[in-house]
Every structure is written in structure tokens, then in C-alpha cells.
Design a protein that fits this description.
182 residues; 3-stranded antiparallel sheet
Length: 182
């Protein structure tokens, strides 16, 4: 009798025992200042496929908007400092295509650019700006794409880059066009 694996993801067929992830998100009202309706989302950590979404039914106040600039790094000459400056440049380019990545700016200013990237990879969180950029045909401006550049190889492990590529492919929907170390 074969080993019982338990439930598997309907998209990638990986066991959910090891890959089931969940998060709470705030669905956006029709206007920025409106209260938001929180939702619980369960997803596969292996492929990113959404398995369940449930509105909690209790409205909460919209979080404060984070506008502004990415803070200067402690050491602009270090590799992590240069990565933070590169993220600042990316944010300028992102703004020019019509998106204000306030969440990403807030994470960078709180954790540093490397810390923000690592936390997003660890928690399997995909920023709204990533989905926006892929939809605009600009995956080259995403954090996931930038992490895979060989000039940052001392900052990110190959496993972290593999996860960044997988995440970007899951957003792109077809698995193509993902970055490799270049």
C-alpha cells in the first residue's frame, strides 16, 4: 500500500502538509480612504496557487499610506547599501509607470532593502507592485527580478533567488520570462 501523502495542491500536486501557507490581507475599498474588509487567504507555498479566500466580515480602518522616499542606507558603498540605492532607483521607475509602491517603501525603510526582500521571500508574500508591474509588461522592475542579478549574489542565496524566480513565474502565469543570475 503506497504511503498516504494527504491533501495535495490541485495546481502543482505538492503535498499541502509541507506547503500550506496562509495570510490575512485587506481587500481594498473603492476609495483609498474607505475602511477595508479583511480576508483570510490560504495558498500553496510551492506554487503560489490560491486555495481559499474568506472575508472575515469585520471592517478595519485603512492603514496609513506610506509615500516618500527610500531612506539612505547606513553605508552606501557596501553591497547591501548599493542594493538599497538600486531599489530607490527602481521605485522612481515604478512611479513613472503609474504605481506608488508605498508598502515596499515602508518595508525598506523599516528593515532595509535586503531585510525587506528576505522577509518577503520567507513569508511568501508577493507585493501588489509585483503584480502591477508584470501586468504592465515590466517584470524587470520587480524586486524578485533584481534579486537575481549576479551583482547581488553575496546578499541572496541561490535558494532565495530560486524562490524569487518561482514567485515571478507564478505571477506571470506561464512560467516563462523569469530571470536567471546574469
Amino acid at each position: 500500500m503506497p504511503d498516504q501523502v494527504g491533501p495535495v495542491c490541485p495546481s502543482c500536486r505538492q503535498p499541502l502538509k509541507e506547503n500550506l501557507r496562509h495570510t490575512r490581507i485587506d481587500s481594498i475599498g473603492s476609495q483609498e480612504s474607505e475602511p477595508r474588509l479583511p480576508a483570510f487567504v490560504a495558498f500553496c507555498g510551492a506554487c503560489g496557487s490560491t486555495l481559499m479566500t474568506e472575508l472575515t466580515g469585520r471592517r478595519i480602518a485603512a492603514p496609513p499610506r506610506v509615500d516618500g522616499e527610500v531612506a539612505s542606507p547606513d553605508d552606501e558603498d557596501s553591497t547591501s547599501g548599493r542594493f538599497q540605492l538600486r531599489c530607490r532607483e527602481l521605485i522612481g521607475e515604478i512611479r513613472s509607470v503609474g504605481f506608488e509602491p508605498g508598502g515596499w517603501i515602508g518595508l525598506i525603510n523599516r528593515l532595509g532593502a535586503v531585510g525587506a526582500a528576505k522577509q518577503l521571500i520567507e513569508t511568501h508574500r508577493i507585493l501588489p507592485v509585483t503584480r502591477f508591474l508584470v501586468g504592465q509588461g515590466r517584470p524587470d522592475l520587480t524586486m524578485e527580478h533584481e534579486m537575481c542579478d549576479s551583482k547581488w549574489s553575496e546578499l541572496f542565496t541561490e535558494a532565495e533567488c530560486d524562490e524569487a524566480r518561482r514567485r515571478l513565474a507564478s505571477v506571470e502565469g506561464n512560467g516563462g520570462g523569469t530571470p536567471s543570475r546574469r
